[in-house]
Amino acid sequence: MKDSVVRGCLLQLLYEHRREGLLPFGQAEQAVRPPAGINGRDWLRAVAQLSEYRLIDWTPLEDESGMGLLSGFAKINDFGVKVLEAGVEPPITVSIDQSQRPAVSKREQTSRERRNQQQAITEALEKVITAINEADVSEREKNAAKSLLRKLLGSKAAARVLGAGAQSLARKYFTE
Fold first, then answer.
1. Alpha carbon distance 153, 131 (integer Å)
2. Can you list the positions of beta strands (E) in the chain?
3. What tens digit of pLDDT does each residue of 49-108 get?
4. 27 near 71, Cβ under 8 Å?
5. What is the mean pLDDT of residues 33-61?
């Protein structure tokens, strides 16, 4: 079986068990065994590769046998989840059976995009506030610009676009 397919099977398995925390692999007690058709050595190589490319978190166990056996605990991390859910391009080839790809509802996707947009706007406004504070202008001009921003952040439009981020920014920068 191709390495990319083995990596995909492993990543999918870790995704399905992500709420369970760390899963044992290799020589660890109750280790997750490879599915039928996948060689044990290939399975553990996939663990090592996914860890190396930071798609999973790996906590190794010390090999007490002296034979260089790979053992430890793994779990999918945020990057691995993004590869599966959002189709983010991984730094190593991972073949996922499209019928097994997790379905992200349109509503969840829209909500995620909105949070990302709110975060980007909030960061941009923080840069504007910093620029105002560092500008080579009089305190009167700085205060006038800050007053306009305070009004903007207190508006219904800002509350609708930024949600709680508008109030958070106002408290953080304009509370005296």
1. 17
2. 23-26, 56-60, 71-76
3. 999 999 999 998 877 766 766 788 999 999 999 998 888 899 999 998 765 555 555 666
4. yes
5. 92
**What 3-state DSSP class applies to 118?**
helix
* pLDDT over 60 at 176, yes or no: no
Residue 102 contacts residue 109 (beta carbons within 8 Å):
no
The Cα-based distances of 95 to 11, 71, 78, 90 in angstroms read: 10, 24, 18, 10
Whether 45 has a pLDDT exceeding 80, the answer reads yes
Closest-CA residue to 90 (of 72, 77, 104): 77
3-state secondary structure of 99: helix
Spatial contact of 55 and 85, defined as CB atoms under 8 Å apart: no
Hey, what are 157's tokens?
A: 């439009």
Tokens of 127: 């840069």
Q: Which two tokens stand for residue 19?
A: 């709420």
160 vs 95: CA distance, rounded Å: 40
Q: Classify burial at 147, counting beta carbons within 10 Å of its beta carbon; exposed 0-12, middle 13-18, buried 19 or more.
A: exposed
Six token digits for residue 101: 């790809």
